[in-house]
Amino acid sequence: MRIIRCKDYADMSRKAANIISAQVIMKPHARLGLATGTTPIGAYQQLIEWYEKGDLDFSEVSTYNLDEYRGLSHDDPQSYHYFMCKNLFDHVNIDLARTHVPDGSDPDAQAACASYDALVKEAGYTDLQLLGIGNNGHIGFNEPDDAFSKGTHCVDLTESTIQANSRLFESIDDVPRQAYTMGVQTIMRARAILVIASGAAKAQAVYDMCFGPVTPRVPASILQLHTNCTVIADEAALGLCS
Ligand code: GLP
Question: Would you call 18 a catalytic residue per the annotation?
Fold first, then answer.
């Protein structure tokens, strides 16, 4: 695990965008694993800026998002699909047919997850997986558990995640209680992983991810076992890592 210390959120975002753009330049048909949440927004804005300057071309890139709320359709403003369009896809020359997000509107959880899993597997998994981290150490929506998850599956969100994510909804009652998420094993198959974290609220999770025991109680801790994982975090998020 490589840890890159950044001054602040802007610095973290620029460095993350640099790594993502290097991947796209080195391999124009790269398969990117993408994340939602507030943390990646700055990196996406930076990518858009470089695209607008003519420095980046997304025309051959394919993307695979980590997760989606169960019960939300693609065009629901709270869905992760909508988030990706608003924060990245609508602003660059990516072919929407090459962008993939689990189908939260499919009520058949097993079928929706199995088909997403097959899609990622058939693609050969991702070249670069971008990850945020939850306050409780979750990645994607893989919550603390007794065992690491494998493929895409339906999860019950924990109260702490529902609480943390409620800031993006009108009221806490609007936050879906379940989500479809790529499993930990699928995430670990990425050739390279880039974790970004910002702010003091993430300090404990970042410490546990980097220096704690590898345990499914802190899903991100398994990233210590990945051979090409980079953590880019600001001073506040690295506050417990001296
Ligand atoms: C959600 C997403 C995660 C994300 C996490 C942290 O739970 N499923 O992929 O990493 O939130 O979000 P934020 O970046 O807003 O702190």
Answer: no
Alpha-carbon span 104 to 36, nearest angstrom: 15
**What confidence tens digit (pLDDT) does each residue in 16-36 have?**
999 999 999 999 999 999 999
Domain annotation for the chain: domains and CATH numbers: 10-120+141-191 (3.40.50.1360)
**Is the pTM above the cut of 0.70?**
yes
The single residue of 65, 136, 142, 165 carrying the catalytic annotation is: 136
Continuous H helices in 97-202: 109-123, 159-165, 184-188
* Residue from 63, 48, 211, 184 nearest 123 by CA: 63
Q: Two tokens at 81?
A: 């699909």
State whether the beta carbon of 161 lies less than 6 angstroms from ligand 1: yes
Phi, psi dihedral angles at 129 (to 5 degrees)? -105, 120
